[in-house]
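Technical annex, item 7. During the second reporting period the consortium partners agreed on a shared format for inverse folding records so that results from different sites could be compared directly. Each record opens with the tokenized structure and is followed by the designed sequence. A conforming record, contributed by the partner at site C, is shown below for reference.
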């Protein structure tokens, strides 16, 4: 049966997730290609990277127009990220060839997916801490968010190391440009605003992913026909996801991605069905408990706001 339509649909779903959350491109597309469509792991990595070269600029252009790109950080990322991504391709080829290479690549991708899960959990935790800190700063009358972002200096050594580590992982697995690197940037520059982190990561990812894609093309891994098929669905998916991102709970989608990536990563690592099921259930339970906790913590804020409006004579909802 012709798999073109299912691949287009898969590309659209992954693109939608990327547009909605800014995460999950390579982490979703590569395992889908391998496990659902039976694509050779190295071909899946190369094809996903080739598709990403054309998909990343859509989000990067939006952030550039909005002024949410820290070009000084980009300039410190690229000197290591670009050559590391290119070199990561050949490091992958050094793992062997034939069936042995395919099996080792699955382990490498599985490990990268589990790192992506850890990265996504860390990002959500850091986002909550940042939100709480910003609220406290606002109450104490400290400087505003835009002014705060302008004062954040670049950490050159840490940023160069982030580019090096992130580039190697992306070149070897296609995973990490939107999940691992952005978390490392958050840890190195904890006072940067979330939209600046996303914009900066998207812009630096274009040349980094292009370098990795070029490496896979040179060694014959990338399937340009497959990449083009993915793009047919991925491009409108990214646009649609970006349009609805302000109307849908990003937290719920991120937890769904965490569950999916946990299952995919454990499957790539050849875990048993019981381990995969327990891992997915654990992440789903953690997401549910987190959502309940956030709702409970939000109730006092809503009550205080309503009381303040009542005291000020603001009419409430009827």
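Designed sequence (site C submission):
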């Amino acid at each position: 049966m012709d798999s073109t339509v299912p691949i287009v649909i898969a590309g659209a779903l992954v693109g939608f997730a990327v547009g909605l959350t800014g995460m999950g491109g390579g982490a979703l597309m590569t395992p889908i290609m391998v496990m659902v469509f039976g694509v050779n792991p190295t071909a899946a990595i190369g094809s996903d990277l080739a598709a990403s070269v054309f998909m990343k600029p859509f989000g990067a252009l939006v952030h550039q127009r909005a002024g949410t790109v820290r070009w000084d950080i980009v300039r410190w990322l690229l000197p290591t990220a670009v050559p590391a991504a290119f070199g990561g391709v050949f490091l992958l080829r050094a793992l062997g060839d034939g069936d042995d290479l395919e099996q080792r690549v699955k382990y490498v991708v599985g490990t990268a997916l589990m790192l992506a899960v850890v990265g996504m959990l860390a990002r959500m935790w850091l986002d909550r801490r940042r939100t709480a800190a910003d609220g406290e700063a606002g109450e104490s009358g400290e400087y505003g968010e835009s002014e705060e972002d302008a004062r954040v200096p670049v950490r050159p050594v840490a940023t160069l190391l982030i580019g090096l580590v992130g580039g190697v992982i992306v070149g070897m697995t296609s995973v990490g440009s939107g999940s691992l690197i952005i978390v490392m940037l958050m840890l190195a520059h904890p006072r940067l605003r979330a939209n600046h982190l996303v914009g900066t990561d998207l812009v630096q990812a274009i040349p980094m992913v292009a370098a990795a894609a070029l490496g896979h093309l040179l060694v014959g891994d990338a399937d340009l026909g497959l990449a083009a098929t993915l793009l047919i669905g991925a491009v409108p998916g990214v646009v649609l996801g970006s349009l609805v991102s302000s109307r849908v709970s990003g937290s719920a989608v991120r937890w769904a991605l965490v569950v999916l990536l946990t299952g995919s990563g454990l499957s790539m690592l050849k875990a048993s069905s019981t381990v995969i099921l327990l891992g997915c259930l654990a992440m789903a339970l953690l997401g549910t408990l987190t959502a309940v906790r956030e709702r409970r913590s939000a109730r006092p804020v809503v009550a205080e706001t309503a009381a303040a409006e009542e005291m000020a004579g603001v009419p409430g909802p009827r």
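The longest helix spans residues 98-140. Residues 141-148 have pLDDT under 50 and may be disordered. All partners now use this format for quarterly exchanges.
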